[in-house]
Specification:
- The complex is a heterodimer of chains A (277) and B (311).
- Chain A is an all-alpha fold.
- Chain A folds into 2 domains: 53 residues, no CATH class; 214 residues, MetI-like fold (Orthogonal Bundle).
- In chain A, 74% of the residues lie in helices and 0% in strands.
- Chain A contains 12 helices and no strands.
- In chain A, α1 packs across α12 and α6 runs antiparallel to α9.
- Chain A is globular.
- Chain A starts with a helix and ends with a helix.
- Chain B has 2 domains: 36 residues, no CATH class; 235 residues, Orthogonal Bundle (MetI-like fold).
- The radius of gyration of chain B is 25 Å and the shape is flat.
- Chain B is mainly α.
- In chain B, β1 and β2 form a beta hairpin.
- Classes of the chains: A mainly alpha (277), B mainly alpha (311).
- At the A-B interface, α1, α3, α4, α5 and α6 of A face α2, α4, α5, α6 and α7 of B.
């Protein structure tokens, strides 16, 4: 009996292992082609097996492309977005959960409506609005729409978390004279770290990789974030797949690092909410 | 509502109703920033596309009111639109359900004491965090019929179906792109199912196996039904995600060959920003909006789907 179970387990493990390796093939190709020596035109098996390794592609990229500049652009756009989303959505989620005001339900379902709208529906009006507000081709022109579109999802997650919070501490604070904002700032927020990290990571990943709005709103090359970089150099590096793939690898590294560091919090944040009650 | 001192304090200052109104509705200030952003970037845009879909306008020049002409043209003469709708249908069914199926299997396998499960979890979810532009370019190379991975494999092993021109054959192009999407987002379904599986108590499974249920029966009669909220959320998010598909199409096929991989979001972009027909693009946006709202509202109100596992 025991050996039968062990056979299942080892077999299962082997299957998952093979599956994971196959799953990673595209990522592996991205790496191997980027390490291909530039004089080699085509690699066998689309890049899976290569003969020599060379860093020359990366040198070319660093020489010809200001990757750091684009990286900074992405940061300038993403960090404020995450900050504002966390701030505004936590305030709103707290209010929806704990306070009462006119048309509370109406506002809530209206904001929820945003989740049902495909973003491509809005690119034309947002483009025109940004132009009218003078935000076209500027960082704010992306930060504000990203924030607006990211808030509803955060509100939902945060509000559910706040709902499950015991009210005793809060009532005690109220009796001691704490006002609504005080409760928000001193009591609810400090303890909400698990959920906040889910919001932060989710919003970060969504905004960092966002492509369509960035394509439409940003015109000047020096303002473009990392996601648009392959587009900028597709002509220049068309005959040099090695260099192109070096660019791709470089723009993937930051978010993979963030993900690897944060995945523990992300998954535990997601699963902690799923345990109902 | 929990049993606690649920004091609903209503202050009154000298019975001054205006002042009372402001004091009792402080909560409104908390949602004001979100509400303002919502009005500017969501609500007003909806009004905007409704109004500009009735115009013949290139985005910069004069605007001429043409009534429903754009809509009529879309529904009667636009072949690309019809292909986009067909592709939407394919995309919905062929991305959501495979992702759910494979994601569930992975989640079930990773929910055990498999060694290195955290690594596996990261590996399967990783495609979802890589920029879709990067993914599009890499997969275009994999699909390349001249020296791509699949064609090289095909020539080496003699399996002819691997050497097809995946992205330039109008009959299979859309399915090729769909396959990439499945690769990209299955990890997300896996994570959602993992979260859902954590909510199933082990005693339930133990009791079932004591009663004589084998693995498949346990999954089919206990696990799968208990994950209903996850199924519904994945379908809801999947439908909306389908209707937002832009980047993959942009970086792999640009809607070609000959509109075979056309999707509404990309078509809107092309009409509005490349072909300079903002009025027409607005009409397309309205149609996409109505489609998305109808499908989402149906799922939320009738089926009880939720946007997250937390609700």
């Amino acid at each position: 009996m025991k050996s039968k179970i062990n056979l299942w387990k080892t077999g299962g493990f082997a299957v998952v292992m093979i599956w994971a390796l196959v799953w990673l093939v595209p990522v592996i190709i991205m790496l191997t082609v980027s390490f291909m020596p530039p004089d080699q035109r085509a690699a066998k098996f689309g890049g899976l097996l290569i003969k020599n390794i060379s860093l020359e592609n990366y040198l070319t990229v660093f020489k010809d492309a200001p990757i750091l500049r684009y990286f900074l652009n992405s940061i300038i756009i993403t960090f404020p977005t995450v900050f504002f989303v966390v701030l505004f959505s936590s305030l709103a989620a707290f209010a929806f959960s704990r306070l009462n005001f006119f048309f509370k339900e109406v506002w809530f379902y209206l904001i929820l409506l945003t989740l049902m709208l495909p973003i491509p529906t809005l690119i034309i009006p947002i483009f025109q609005i940004n132009k009218s507000l003078g935000l076209y081709n500027s960082y704010l022109g992306l930060i504000l729409p990203y924030t607006a579109l990211g808030i509803p999802f955060s509100i939902i997650i945060l509000r559910s978390f706040f709902e499950g919070f015991p009210r005793d501490i809060e009532d005690a604070a109220r009796i001691d004279g704490c006002n609504a904002f005080g409760i928000y700032w001193r009591i609810i927020m400090p303890v909400s770290w698990p959920v906040l990290s889910v919001v932060i990571i989710w919003q970060f990943m969504t905004s960092w990789n966002e492509f369509l709005l960035a394509l439409v709103i940003i015109k000047d090359v020096q303002l473009k974030p990392l996601t648009l970089v392959p587009l900028i150099y597709s002509g220049q590096f068309m005959a040099r797949p090695g260099a192109m793939f070096a660019v791709l690898t470089l723009i993937t590294i930051p978010i993979v690092i963030v993900y690897v560091l944060m995945q523990r919090y992300f998954v535990s944040g997601m699963t902690s909410g799923a345990l109902k009650g | 509502m929990q049993n606690s001192l649920n004091i609903r304090l209503k202050y009154s200052f000298n019975n001054n109703t205006i002042r009372d109104f402001f004091i009792n509705n402080q909560g409104f200030l908390f949602i004001l920033p979100s509400l303002i952003l919502f009005f500017v970037f969501v609500l007003y845009p909806i009004y905007y596309i409704l109004q500009s879909s009735l115009l013949d306008w290139s985005g910069v020049g004069t605007q001429t009111f043409v009534g429903f002409k754009n809509y009529i043209e879309i529904f009667t003469q636009d072949r690309a639109f019809r292909l986009a709708m067909r592709n939407c249908l394919y995309w919905t069914f062929l991305t959501i359900f495979p992702q759910m199926f494979i994601g569930f299997i992975l989640a079930y396998a990773l929910n055990t004491n498999l060694p290195g499960r955290n690594v596996f979890r990261a590996v399967f979810y990783m495609p979802a965090i890589i920029s879709p532009v990067v993914i599009g370019i890499v997969w275009t190379r994999i699909y390349n019929p001249f020296n791509g991975l699949l064609s090289d494999l095909g020539f080496a092993t003699g399996l002819e179906f691997l050497t097809k021109p995946y992205l330039s054959d109008p009959k299979i192009a859309i399915f090729s792109v769909i396959a990439v999407n499945v690769w990209q987002w299955t990890g997300w379904s896996m994570l959602m199912y993992l979260a859902g599986l954590q909510g199933i108590p082990d005693e339930l499974m133990g009791a079932a196996s004591l009663d004589g249920a084998n693995l498949f029966q346990r999954i089919r009669y206990i696990v799968w039904p208990m994950l209903n909220h996850v199924h519904k959320t994945l379908i809801l998010l999947g439908v909306i995600g389908t209707l937002q598909t832009f980047t993959l199409i942009f970086s792999m096929t640009k809607g070609g060959p000959n509109h075979a991989t056309e999707m509404l979001p990309f078509y809107i972009f092309k009409q509005g920003f490349e072909l300079q027909s903002m009025g027409y693009a607005s009409a397309l946006s309205v149609i996409l909006l109505v489609l998305a709202l109808t499908l989402s509202l149906f799922q939320v109100l009738v089926l009880g789907s939720r946007f997250s596992l937390y609700d």
